[in-house]
Amino acid sequence: MKKHIITLSLLGIVLSSCSNAGNFSISNETVGPLTKTTKVSELKSIFANDSLVDATGTTDFSTPQGYVTVFEKGGKKLLELGPSANESDATVNYIRVYDERFKTSEGITTKSTFKDIQNGYEIKRIENLISTVVVLIENNDIYFTIDKKHLPSELMFDTQSKIEFSQIPDDAPIKYVQISW
Questions:
Q1: Could you give the percent of the chain with pLDDT greater than 90?
Q2: Contacts from 33-41 at CB under 8 Å and sequence distance 24+?
Q3: What pTM value is reported for the model?
């Protein structure tokens, strides 16, 4: 009897950890429980155990007003979600990941580095913005942002130059993992 209880307990732990792992996966089609067809109006039920706030500070998502931020109970920022439009049937079409538990199939998280991106993906191009560089991936809706403070000083305030892979240090950390559908 005791052996069966231990076996069932272990099985329960394994099954619950497997379902939790899926809640933090990032792919071309999903980010955790979100998909390309997720409507903003569904967010309250999807994130029932978390807190949601839109750009105006409201928690009513019948007509979203800008980005919706998802906070874990306790205040940790998980995601920032952009609606396709400010309409009641808008879908989520932009996601910025803040929490390091979210992971791509190649194992990339917000705790990864530029070298990890290079090892896991074929890089399409690098966009030079004001304070960041954006690393776009070939045939993928996922992209990564790196803060320019990790680049050589001559590139930190330069928005005109084309940034080459070799100019980004291997250990430059990812600031954000993002996906846009």
A1: 64
A2: 34/81, 34/92, 34/95, 36/91, 36/93, 36/181, 37/91, 38/91, 38/92, 39/89, 39/90, 39/91, 39/92, 40/64, 40/68, 40/81, 40/83, 40/90, 40/91, 40/92, 41/88, 41/89
A3: 0.81
